[in-house]
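User: Structure with S-adenosylmethionine, tokens only please.
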Amino acid sequence: MKIKIMTIFPQMFAGFLNTSIIKRAIDNKLIEIEIVDFRQYSKDKNKRVDDYPYGGGAGMILSCQPVLDCLSEIKSDNSFVIITDPAGKRFDQSLAKQYSQKDELVIICGHYEGFDGRIYDFVDEKVSIGDYVLTGGELASMVISDAVSRLVDGVISSNSTCEESFENDLLEYKQYTRPQIYNGMAVPEVLVSGHHENIRLYRLKEQLKNTYLYRKDLLKKHQFTEEEKRLMKEIIEEHD
Ligand code: SAM
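Assistant:
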């Protein structure tokens, strides 16, 4: 899969592209991430990309010309174009999965007070990473690219993603590693019992419990099995 990120701050991406799983995925040619500086497309003699807002008000607005000239040059028929915007559709795991199926994503990073309103006519989706306002879309584009990249085949083992948080509308269970006892705190006995069925049940109950305690909203969407309904009854009795 290919991801093209349009920004006026390409230097922000050095750490992201050169570290850990993303770097390995790029080196192994599983994903390709291209950073495109749309300031280079500005026809202004000083390479300006922004201007004052019509109607007055604070801050500067990114102009149509550099953004749209850059977009029309780098997008292809296979591109799905996302614009980062706090007023956009909320990015979540299900959107990450949808994007991971695309051949090519183009992500446009805003800055200052945002974009000229006409730019939105040229994008497929307006996406927000949460209800807060960042100084620019660069961090948002890295969040989106990271979450999408790890879902691309081969980037990480599919066993790692199938029981993760938000799979099946549940949060993950707590995990433990060596030593078995640290400063007097022991790993739950069941996890060292070697009893696979008890471990499965323990983990499922932990997933349901975490989701009940921290994200009840997810449980509204979850399709409960009979076994889960029974475990849920126990959890409610234990915590209410
Ligand atoms: N004036 C805009 C508003 O009130 O909605 C905020 C502009 S913000 C300071 C500048 C840029 O940062 C936005 O154009 C967008 O690209 C990016 N940005 C800020 N918060 C974001 C969020 N929560 N999700 C995605 N992008 C965000």
